[in-house]
Amino acid sequence: MIDLHAHTTASDGSLTPTELVALADEIGLAALGVTDHDTVGGLQEAVQAAERHPGLRIVPGIEIGVDYPKPGQFHLLGYFVHYGEGPFRSRIEYLQENRANRNQLMAQKFAEHGLALSWEDVLRESGGGQVGRPHMARAMVTKGLVATVQEAFDRWLADGKPLHVPKVKLSPGEAIELVHQGGGAAVLAHPKFLQRPNPDDLAEELQRFADLGLDGLECYYSQHTPEETAFYLAEAKRLGLAVSAGSDFHGVSKPHVHLGRIFAGAAGADDLLPALEARAAGA
Ligand code: AMP
Ligand code: FE
Ligand code: FE
Ligand code: ZN
Predict the structure, then answer these.
(1) Out of 17, 116, 160, 242, which residue is the most buried by the measure of CB atoms under 10 Å away?
(2) In this predicted structure, what is the pLDDT of residue 145?
């Protein structure tokens, strides 16, 4: 069993990289993809922690949030990226600086809107890693300003709402190129969240991304139905894309998602790594 999509406290997951690796080993995973949002900050710790678990292979990854028309979301997974010092890491760090500036601007708005919420409250929710809107939402719940994380987004944090400040986002082509610069394989995460209006339009979009150099498709995903999985497997075959499998485990912030539990036929997912690795090497 493998799971190539999981988050840690380096972004909005609730387990540290060390804890995530221990859990992956405990449930018997053969391979774990560590794919934090827009950061490679958890990878070194994950790789080190895995040295104590010889049966478990770590796939160093990232999940880049890409500019895409609403209501769709384009998240690009990069696998086998060279996350040490170098041009790839520098580009990622530039994106992180932009995020930090944006966070500051958002924090200034807390007081402007009379909210009893400080940056320290937000940091307390973050586990020491990269901070984003999900942590602000959780802090608002903790402080009793809203009842749920979703209400925090709907009233305050969603795009266009009072606290929102946009951040720099790469286009699909730029993000794919960035992953390739980092020596990685570029894989479209949870394609259902592109939210295209119909299958023909979705197929055209996937063709466009393949033409931009996309390497793979996360056909097996914890929230895909069996029908969706079958559709994406057929599309991957049509477009010559490698197939990936991931749960999108976040820990307590997505309690319904469990590490290694990838529904809808993921039994066939065990031998996917060689093709993904070959695409990374060919990048
Ligand atoms: P950030 O990277 O700080 O802009 O936060 C992006 C994350 O916030 C996404 O990955 C989602 O988890 C969450 N998010 C964004 N928009 C919404 C929304 N409208 N409702 C709930 N969660 C959202
Ligand atoms: Fe997340
Ligand atoms: Fe995602
Ligand atoms: Zn994810």
Answers:
(1) 17
(2) 98
